[in-house]
Queue: 2 jobs
Job 1
Amino acid sequence: MISTLRGQSLLSLEGLEREALVEVLDTAESFVEVNSRAIKKVPALKGRVVASLFYEESTRTRLSFETAAKRLSADVLSLAVASSSVKKGESLRDTIATIDALGIDAVVMRHQSSGASVQVSRYVPHVRVINAGDGQHQHPTQGLLDAFTIRQVLAERRHTTGPESGAELFEQLHVLIVGDIRHSRVARSDIDAYVTLGAEVRVAGPRTLLPVDIDRWPVTVVDDFDEALEWADVVGLLRLQRERGSGSFVPSLGEFTRTFGLTVQRARRLRPETIIMHPGPINRGVEIDSLVADLPSAVIERQVANGVPIRMAVLYLTVAGTRMEGAQ
Amino acid sequence: MSTLLLRHATLVHEQSTQVGDVLVREGRIEQVGAQLERPAGAREIDCTGCWVGPGFVDLHTHLREPGREEAETIESGARVAAVGGYTAVVAMANTEPALDNVALVSYVLDRGARTPIDVAVCGAITQGRRGELLAPMAEMAELGVRLFSDDGTGVQDPMLMLRALTYVKPLGVRLAQHCEDELLAAGGSMNEGLLSSRRGLGGRSSLSEEIMVMRDIELVRHSGGALHFLHLSTARSLALVIQARCEGLDVTCEVAPHHFTLDESACEGFDPIFKVHPPLRTKNDVTELRRGLVEGTVDAVATDHAPHAPQLKDLAFDEAPAGMLGLEHAASLTFEALGGDACDPVRFFQLLSRGPARVARLRAADHRLRHSAHGAVLAAGEDANLVVFDPASRWSASRDDLHGRSTNTPYDGRAMMGRVRATIAKGNLVVDQGEPL
């Protein structure tokens, strides 16, 4: 179990203790303010080099990480690795060795294969590896920013602040995660974060899109989706990953929407204060109706905005002090 | 050829053991007995405390030649086999191109004949191992091929498999199946279960193996054919084959060392070294396969020795090729699985030599094929294919100490019990003190 991210790679939220998660959320809180300044920059990582290595294209996540790194004054090396590099015969080890030779402190890595960042962290143990999404395994910063967003919204409602509340706001919190959990790295990271922070997590979705052995996960599978909507304080929707073949797991998109989509009609069952979340990009009309996505209780854009302070916090904690501390 | 006198050995016969000496001359066992006289010029090997039995036979070796010579060649693979105590290996058909015709089989047999050990060939069941059209098995059988398999994948089409079983009946050969239904395995890369689910890796379920074992048992029943089940990895697969055998069907099976020494938890850190098909299973499966070894329900330990060039194991887990090395460690791991110091030497040689030699029909010499007899009795006049195994040895496996072209062993750093000291193949001392000569 990991009790602090300081000086550590961030590969997965599994195994991170509550205090480590709270430390990231609290650190992110201090960076929110930076992002509202006219000059959005602090010198925390001045002189440090952060590489971003995206095997799988993701403009949103890449921009979010690179923005975070730049606001911390780090130098950013942005490497677009065509997914065909594997076909050209370059191994993960060779790619990371090449980048490492340029002299980097951290690498932010997105890969289509589960575990790729775990493997890379073994090849370059002196570099901090930040998993920006690996296959169907984990997307730790998404899990963190989702937890951060929930805490922020709840803290505002209760006229307190995130750091003051620690993990308290998650105690007994009812979180319902809906949809294609089987193929979702976001779901895996979200579940790890929420459960560790003290929330009760239930999942709903077509049985074919629930992971194997879900009954041995720290969640409960709901039988009645409509009832669960009334139970939920937070509803987290997931993108139906048609590119991962989700299509063949359900008869049709229409049927998926009718059974597990957050339609206007179904959204009426939600309490007005229930938070609606989605990691994006949204398939409007599939997992969530357009009108529902635009409800005041939907915090989808806030999730995106919180990506930057969370990633600043992760970069700061993992990178800052690692080399300096070693030198001292 | 050298003259060798093995002194004070524990000779492991088919049913018993006996302390004695073995004199090897001109490629044959000349004499077995106590206190044999040493002929002039004979090299004496003190075998005190060691087991001497028939050389090991591997039913399942990937020699990679032709096509993947950077990973292994017939020459390097034979050397590795000898270090592991093997005097015969069956070269699997999934080379590039596949061993699906007389020309390619002849090539491998010719190359094999130049190595210190005997190299037999397992031909492909279907052309190009594509699972569409039967390969010319009768022609290959004329060359002496006794086993046929599309290993790497099984023959998916049940009608084609039924035809293959029926077609080869008069040929006196045996088909060998890699049991995994590829549609159910769904491109997965580790055992399906909680771990694969939490790690977001596609799973290859035990069902995908067992359903094909079930199917093939019924195809054997229907056709009256004979089938060898390759690398069974689940408790249920083994139970199914045992049941079929009790019902009188002509079925045999092997298990691979990795399946009875490692379980799925090895994949936790996404190291592709541990990726193999069928995948490493659960602890319960490991326990049950070990029981099969001890109780003798398994016919053979077979390595599924699968060399891969290092860069291929540096790919992501789901992109890396499946397979791991086995030849150099199989004997020690079998010894461990049979109870280490409590290991029954008769069972040990049954699993590593006599059982597989029977399945591969290598127990009698075939001079047309230029191969000698394996898994035979220890008696004067028999071909001298022998191994000297030291059950008291304790050592540590290391990827730096391997003798082949690839290093993808899952046992780096593992404590080992028992070790092959010497290998005598076709009357020659080819490995001494664990090193090839």
Note: The mean pLDDT of chain A is 92.
Job 2
Amino acid sequence: MSGKGWRAAADDFASGTSRTWLWRALAWNDVKHRYSGSVLGSLWITANIALLTLCLTLVFSGPLGASHGRYAPYVAIGLVLWYFVQSTLSEAPNAFVGQAETIRHSPLPLSIQVLRAVWRNILIFAHNAVVIPIVLVAFGIVPHPSAVLGLVGLLLLSVNLVSATVILGLLGARFRDIQPVMTSALQLLFFVTPIVWFPAALSGREGWIAAANPVFALIDVVRAPLLGDSPAATSWPMAIGVTIAGAALAAAGFARFRHRVAYWV
Amino acid sequence: MAHLSLSGVSLDFPIYHSSARSMRRFALRGALGGKLNLEGKRATVAVLRNIDLELRDGDRLALIGPNGAGKSILLRTMAGVYEPECGTVSRLGRLTPLLSHGIGLDLEATGLENIFLLGMHLDLQPRQMRPKVDEIVEWTELGPFMAAPLRTYSAGMIMRLAFAVSTCAPPEILLIDEWLGLVDAAFQQKAHQRMAAFVGDTSILVLASHAPDLLGLWCSEAVRLEGGSIVERGPVADILESVGAAAAGDAA
């Protein structure tokens, strides 16, 4: 790979990132008009998460052998984080294709479209996150000082979603069948990731199912500190490792294929 | 001191037909022992061939040529949308590409919000746009509609808004791919006046158009493109004349 590609990619990323006013405003505009015309607006998602938490708690806390007070906060935080991951990843293949008109006619940095897509989902996440303090208060969970580690975890998660949006955005621009693949992949991911079930439910031999899953690691390092638990031993190393590997892969892909995106979209 | 130069620029445009866009085909090509080739076997079309251009302050260049001659691609390459694999493009000065009408328009957003959205896509920050809003609204005569979503506008109203925002801040380098004709007739006169002031304030203009009178009005120099190459260059009147003569020759 030529140094030219790396330099151009770095320039694109630097000038894109520095235009905070641009990607934030575009993301805000996306959120604002996505829900226009519906009565509850984006509250629908929040209400959906709250309702799902209630139902799952009533149905599953018994079979999983956990009290309501243990299970409800666990699943509420898990769902809020999962929704963040799922909506970002499912929109990612469309990050460049969806802005084809702009990309083909204007020299604005491509990284704008990535940051806009992730920031849009961060805004919706922030909105859904109101469920978290409510459920913590309802079940009398006082956050431990170590809960701030959850914020570090959230930062790692967001960085990974930026990397993933770059990679999936490039793939989605080149191959138009990425989008349907993502829909089924995400459904599968939801079931194999300990979000509504505890990783302890896995027997020793099956432990790798959670340990090898980077999405679980990234959710665990946010959720466990908020609940006053410690994450699984594998979670922090996995979360940090996948952040580095993902960023490296995204940077390489962006350097290699960035200039082709204008032809692809 | 604005400056725009292209030296030895050639551009090949990759062609993706629908099967090349399928991941399944792509994977099968590897699995079935075919040579997995990411870049090598791509079908391409040569769209620009060895373009040399040097534009300085005060230059007003017309791009003339039949459809498919490479006018739009050349403008986009000047803008930096396409990065040529061969040759170099260098620009100095704030560049505004008006290559498609209304980049950044959102039909769900209000007229006022769209003024800011369009401005942002021209790299104008909201704080730079704010002082210009009143003038834009007044010029478009769309005051009463500013709070209504854009999808309630007629096509002509949308064009007026897009045009007014696009021409609110003269850049140093202005690239225009003809789209002025879309402003409704009643506004043509007004639009031409605004355009004259706007173009007058820019240092370098490159305009692609099929309308000879428009080219004659705004440009002093012209290049004629054919098959992606510059085949003729000179004063705009001479080039228009030779194009006209060629067309007449074909007709006869």
Note: Chain A is about 70% helix and 0% strand.
